[in-house]
Design a protein that fits this description.
- The protein has helices spanning 16-33, 52-68, 86-95, 100-104, 107-118, 125-139, 153-170, 215-223, 241-254, 258-264, 268-294, 297-326; strands at residues 3-8, 35-40, 77-80, 145-147, 178-180.
- The chain has 332 residues and is mostly helical.
- The protein has two domains: 3-181 and 297-326, Rossmann fold (3-Layer(aba) Sandwich); 205-292, Tyrosyl-Transfer RNA Synthetase (Orthogonal Bundle).
- The chain has a three-stranded parallel beta sheet with strand order 1-2-3. It has a two-stranded parallel sheet with strand order 4-5.
- The protein is globular and about 70 Å long.
- The structure holds adenosine-5'-tetraphosphate.
Length: 332
């Protein structure tokens, strides 16, 4: 059976981008068709300035939202990265296989360094080595496929390179994984700045739809989305990125396609209303289930404890093999 691994960073409240680009596919497809592991990658949440209490809170909230979005612990494994030591054990080996040039070429790293430099700040070393930990996350489970939005495809590509290099130098140890990117909503854009991705740690609240926003807030954000001065609804990502983003969100929520949806709505207002309705239809059940799960936090903790046990049982033998292969003396 194909093994699938994917993760989500608790660096902010989860967004419509996380849901349409990742979580929905995990729940609707991956957990049914594969041996799937989904991880709240809390260690990655410390590569930028963080507040310990907030990180803990967001980690619990992300786990609750994954279950609310339909991940079923009977069908898949849901766990927290820091609960399974194998991730950091293997990450160091990945750092010994990767080069600093490879790390510095990562687009996310370059963008973050540039934006911090503007404020006269430097970045944490862990931001540079983040892709080594991400490679470890994936390779420790022998994952064949990594479903991600297209922003993460470069990191999965590096993971493949590291797996191949390790296997060539030290003997076959790792499955070489491949990224799978959803056909629709691979990149949901910020409603106020449709040239930038809708990201959960963005400062621009009005451009980001959070999964736990109140329905009227969601509607308001979509109705106020930046479009352009045109009148006619056409799907053109280059020339009309704001309208294209709304059409893509609507398509992702309704199962249509952006080009034909453009012919259905005769004004930007009608398109925005339809998009808001569709988003609310999709998020309503997730919000309702989240509310139910919050009543019983013990259930979520139990799911995570059991998930970590299952994750450990898979990853420990693979990481032990890698330790032996690279030349580390096993403990007596
Ligand atoms: N806007 C998006 N459109 C489509 N997919 C997205 N994903 C994230 N944003 C979008 C996908 O969600 C999964 C989990 O992402 P992540 O939380 O681990 O990391 P990220 O991609 O860095 O997400 P954010 O929200 O942009 O976080 P910050 O702001 O902290 O950097 C991944 O599969 C991702 O592709």
């Amino acid at each position: 059976m194909t093994r699938v691994f994917s993760g989500i960073k608790p660096t902010g409240h989860l967004t419509l981008g996380n849901y349409l680009g990742a979580m929905r596919q995990w729940a609707a497809v991956d957990q049914h068709q594969a041996d799937a592991l989904f991880c709240i990658v809390d260690l990655h949440g410390m590569t930028v300035d963080h507040d310990p209490a907030r990180l803990r809170r967001l980690t619990r909230q992300a786990a609750t939202l994954l279950l609310a979005a339909g991940l079923d612990p009977e069908l898949c494994t849901v766990f927290v990265q820091s609960h399974v030591d194998e991730h950091t054990r293997l990450s160091y080996l990945m750092e010994c296989v990767a080069t600093d040039g490879e790390m510095r070429r990562m687009i996310q790293y370059k963008e973050k360094v540039a934006s911090e430099a503007v404020r006269g700040r430097s970045v944490r070393l862990s931001l540079l080595t983040y892709p080594a930990l991400m490679a470890a996350d994936i390779l420790a489970y022998g994952a064949d496929e990594v479903p991600v939005g297209d922003d993460q495809a470069q990191h999965v590509e590096l993971t493949r390179d590291l797996a191949v290099r390790f296997n060539q130098r030290y003997g076959h140890t790792f499955v070489v994984p491949k990224a799978t990117v959803p056909k629709v909503a691979a990149r949901v854009m910020n409603l106020q700045d449709p040239m930038s991705k809708m990201g959960k740690s963005d400062d621009s609240g009005p451009g980001v739809v959070y999964l736990l926003d109140e329905p009227e807030v969601i509607r308001k954000k979509i109705m106020r989305a930046v479009t352009d001065s045109g009148q006619e609804v056409v799907y053109d990502r280059e020339e009309r990125p704001g309208v294209a983003n709304l059409l893509e969100i609507l398509a992702a929520c309704t199962g249509g396609n952006p080009e034909s949806l453009a012919t259905v709505h005769d004004s930007y207002g009608a398109l925005k209303r339809a998009t808001a309705d569709a988003v609310l239809d999709v998020l309503g059940p997730v919000q309702a289930r989240h509310k139910e799960l919050c009543v019983d936090p013990g259930y979520v903790e139990e799911v995570l404890r059991h998930g970590a046990e299952k994750a450990r049982a898979i990853s420990r033998p693979i990481v032990d093999t890698a330790y032996r292969a690279i030349g580390l003396l096993p403990p007596g």
